[in-house]
Write a structure and sequence with these properties.
The structure is a homodimer. By secondary structure, chain A is an alpha+beta fold. Chain A has seven helices and nine strands. The radius of gyration of chain A is 21 Å and the shape is elongated. The termini of chain A are far apart. The model of chain A has no long low-confidence stretch (mean pLDDT 91). Chains A and B meet through strand 1, helix 2 and strand 5 of A and strand 1, helix 2 and strand 5 of B.
């Protein structure tokens, strides 16, 4: 907990620098070789965990705010964050509204206000990045999706909504460029989809559908090695991949 | 333009009742028998048009705010509005910020603040609803998509982003229940998709793909009439339709 002096200073700073009533929360999913995780913070003196979040500077575009917040709180830079939903329940920040209510009158306590939170998500290779906690947090860690601890505020709802948005995205946008090696086999790519969707997919249907999207190039030579039947290697066709990112799949309407 | 007295009153009311820095804009698309329109407002004394928009009451969930705003400004009630994006450029409300800057000092003028706008969209049968302008507007009208007038602020960006979101939605969610008659032919449903996408679709591919979604029931008897080859009639399988609305299509991964 902050002391009263710290709270007053924090409220004055916040009132001067940030937009009232608006916050941002980031859901960063990590993938590496068939494992899927989410990035969480644990603050000092609180049992529950948080998504990395913060506020919008008075003259700052919201996309820049999302990236700055993620950088400040976790040390992660240059992550492509995608806006997915605004969480606007009037009681969503009640825990924080009440936290310091005995310390400072409501009208002087910036944190007693209602906050709408704009949710952003990203999917990165967790092996490539090492998160660092900020001053408010005792740890900043990748947690397995099936071992997510109890989250503060409505952060479980934000996390689950982001996961739904990521899964939906598999139906209309390509995924995986920053997650797969330069060349990969069809089973390796299928594993990415299965991990995100948390279910097994039919091998032949997967291959037929992903090839129809037109975002893969097949190498002429199969992978060399001792295997009886060497698998074909694929790489992303970056031009078609980027086109599909903005225009949707060829397989669309 | 408001008089100075009206502006002062409006600012005082707004400061007391609404969240600072947050607005909502609604993009309501209308469809009827192969015609597609968007609902726009024209205010008194301004040449440019607006999307119906407004502010969030201090204790109001944002979904309720979106519906109240649409009702107050256009008379349309019980429209299912879907959140699609937050528009957060710091300069997006500059026109309104400057409009009354000579009349009232910035710190007293609530409208001089920065506003993030949460965008909502809906698709309705425009034949079923008659919009009514509110007190600020001289007209509230359905305009053809290819005849949208010049829009104020960043409302053209909001409109276009909503249209992209609606088109994307055709790839992962069913559409049309409130837009088609109870029974319809395959070409009638195809016309809905073609109108939204603004392009011709292949008849056989459309039929194959839409049937694979499993949201249609085919009537046993073809439509009666004088035609040489009577077309089959379809209706939505409401259980599967609603399931696909929340879970995505069977045709997904």
């Amino acid at each position: 907990m902050l002391t009263k002096q710290e709270l007053i200073k924090y409220c004055n700073d916040a009132r001067q620098n940030y937009l009232d009533h608006v916050s941002i929360d980031c859901v960063v999913f990590g993938f590496h070789e068939g494992q899927m995780k989410v990035l969480l913070l644990k603050t000092h003196h609180e049992e529950k965990w948080y998504l990395p979040g913060g506020f919008v500077l008075k003259e700052e575009p919201i996309e820049m705010a999302a990236n700055r917040i993620l950088m400040e709180r976790t040390g992660l830079d240059k992550i492509f964050l995608q806006q997915f939903h605004v969480f606007g329940d009037p009681d969503r920040s009640k825990f924080h509204n009440d936290l310091y209510k005995d310390m400072l009158p409501t009208q002087e306590n910036w944190f007693a206000g209602r906050f709408l939170s704009i949710g952003y998500y990203a999917l990165v290779d967790f092996f490539e990045v090492t998160p660092q906690p900020d001053q408010f947090s005792e740890s900043c860690t990748w947690r397995d999706l099936d071992d997510v601890p109890e989250l503060q505020l409505d952060h479980e709802l934000i996390f689950k909504t982001a996961l739904d948005a990521l899964r939906l995205q598999l139906n209309y946008q390509p995924i995986g460029y920053n997650l797969m090696p330069k060349e990969f086999t069809m089973p390796e790519l299928q594993k990415l989809y299965e991990t995100i969707l948390d279910k097994k997919l039919d091998r032949r249907n997967f291959q037929r559908r992903i090839l129809a999207f037109g975002i893969l190039n097949r190498a002429e030579q199969p992978r060399k090695g001792g295997a009886h039947k060497a698998p074909y290697l694929y790489s992303f066709d970056l031009e078609n991949y980027r086109h599909a990112l903005t225009e949707g799949f060829k397989g669309g309407w």
